[in-house]
Amino acid sequence: MKKEKLQGPEQPVLSKAVLEQERKMLLDLGNDITRVRDKNDLLLLFSRRLKRYFYFTHTIVTLIDEKGGTYTPFLLDNEHSPIRTHARYAELVKARFPLNEPFIQAVLQANGPISFLLEAVMDQPGSPVFLKVNYEEGVREILMTKIMMEDKPVGFIHMYTDKPGSFTNEFRSVINGIVPQLSGAVSNILKNEEIYKTEREKSFLLDFSNEIAKVRSKPELQAAIFKVLDKTMHTQLAMIRVIDDDGIHLSMFMCDPTLFGGAKAFEQMSNTRITVEEPYTSKVLASKEGLVFSVAEEIKGGNDYARLWATTGRKNMYSFPLRVGDRNIGTIWMLANKLSKLLLKGICAQISISIANIQANEKLLAYKKQLENENDYLKEQIRTIYNFSEIVGNGAAMQEVYRLISLVAASGTTVLVLGETGTGKELIARAIHNASTRKDKLMVKVNCAALPANLIESELFGHERGAFTGATEKHIGKFELANQSTLFLDEIGELPLEAQAKLLRVIQERELERVGGKQTIRVDVRLIAATNRNLEEAVRAGQFREDLYYRLNVFPIPLPPLRERPEDLEPLANFFVKKYARNAGRKISQIASKAMQQLHSYNWPGNVRELEHMIERSVLLATDGILKDVYIPQKNIPEKQSPAYLVNRSLEEVERSYIIDILKRCHGKISGVGGAAEILQVPGNTLHSKMKKLGITKADYFS
Ligand SMILES: Nc1ncnc2c1ncn2[C@@H]1O[C@H](COP(=O)(O)OP(=O)(O)OP(=O)(O)O)[C@@H](O)[C@H]1O
After folding, report:
1. Which of 137, 241, 540, 701 could cysteine-pair with 663, CB 3.0–4.6 Å?
2. pLDDT at 644
3. Residue 651: is it exposed, middle or buried by C-beta count within 10 angstroms (0-12/13-18/19+)?
4. 636 Cα: distance to centroid of ligand 1 (angstroms)
5. Domains, the chain
6. Pocket test for ligand 1, best of 612, 615, 697, 698 (most atoms within 8 A of CB)
7. Which residue in 308, 324, 322 sits closest to 238, CA to CA?
């Protein structure tokens, strides 16, 4: 060590006047300190007071870093410091000076203020550069004293003069007396700063948390992160990597592409899929509160990434594990000179939750999409496998019908199709049959309403030759015909009570005897019954056996009337236009919107059958390629039809009105003596089919 001029710390003998001076100064300073709001004001007041009594150029306060090892400027005298214009000033005010060098060690070991001639110490090995800089600006001597807090040095007061010898005994004695007060003030400032910083950080975190709570998607999260890093942390995101579902790999989740100015190396790096074992990543993931990598140190250590980091001019790479609870979900990387740990910790916690939410949301959306696709696929499958292609209508009501069909079709369960006349009950029965294992055999249909009461049994169960008058041949009944297939009992509600009892027995026993026969015949028949009647009411009215009702009502499929599924009207109308235009060899491709409106305004008591007939008629009457007119039934049709009324009506309409008229006259009796079929001179069955074709229901002739 070069020879240095050490003054004090021996206690000087002070005159009364000096003591008085010191007391007054301490008092003044005490008052000042209570008024100080800004930390630099403290130093200014201190300098000004002191300058009233002593000569020196300027003063600064440095603080020892928390972790020790260095000290750094804290309070600056921006008014008087001669080095403010020095080229290295900006560097000096931010610098960290090591504590383990002889100059500052001498200060630490001294029991009070200690002064040095700069010339003597500035060139010593390890001496802080501010000594030389001050010397270059004309400063010649420095007086230093420790600031103590709870018996520990926390910093230093530096006082400088351009006139060696300025730091007299009196001066040093006053400084010595002032130090405890100054320490208290510095300590208050530090505490206040800490509180203020914490408050500010908390408020930033609150703002960020509010912002991030609104985030629903990755781009929104990116915007929120970029904003907080830029505005609050004054840094940029280098990268966020998230751990893949396999728990091993990490993929790039987000980065700020502007940070490295589109460097190829970054692109390469971000596209590389790394694992949790990658040395840096594993260190970060294992760390409790993140790691800071010094860019310079990393370059020295041969870290290739660090060369890229250095291009930003920032000193450190901050990396934090992204965690939700105890689970690591990724890592975040930011380049900065200095970042607040508390703030980083809070921000990373929020980012972690947000990423986890977005991932969960993305998974949910993907799952939903997959379910939707599966649903579409299954619907399509149901339609193709079960061949519902001839059934038109895709509205919610029909979807439910298709679902029920697909549930029941493969089983042998008895099905009861319920719905108004013309809603498509037979179509549904066929669809069930076609989707069942019995599809290779024909479905057998019996219309229970169309059979004369005395023939029903024979029709269903067959008869032996000579069983009754007219039974000249053995007759195989529909049940036997439908063995290993499906028997469709249409209009089951019309079955006479006697036949109901027999039917019940066959259903229960799965065996029958032909009328007039002795032999028991086992049958394997799947039953589908349909009715437009309210069977429960019929049971209550004693018209339908309760036990049979329960046997049939195993799996009911209700078919909604057309007026309750208007969404199906247009597809159905278009379907029938195509069908009947093709049948008639006509080129009609669409229905005019006015006609469609008319269709929608009608409430379709005869349901799809009525619509079908109306379209068939309209197609035949159409004059060009667009169906402009539909023939909606007129209400209040006069009882007596005048010839004028018959004008412009189709043959079918006239036929329909005529049959209804006759049925009305016969009080609804179709076949037998005095029945409509007799008057019209056609067999009962023929009249029944005709009525069905023309959509004539009981409502027409009983009204
Ligand atoms: N969804 C539909 N898609 C295509 N055509 C349909 C549809 N529903 C009914 N139809 C047609 O309407 C007409 C009447 O249908 P179906 O005979 O099945 O009705 P229903 O309910 O059995 O009538 P009823 O009670 O009078 O016996 C048939 O020509 C049928 O093809």
Report:
1. 701
2. 39
3. exposed
4. 26
5. 16-195 (3.30.450.40), 214-362 (3.30.450.40), 396-559 (3.40.50.300), 561-633 (1.10.8.60), 634-703 (no CATH)
6. 612
7. 308
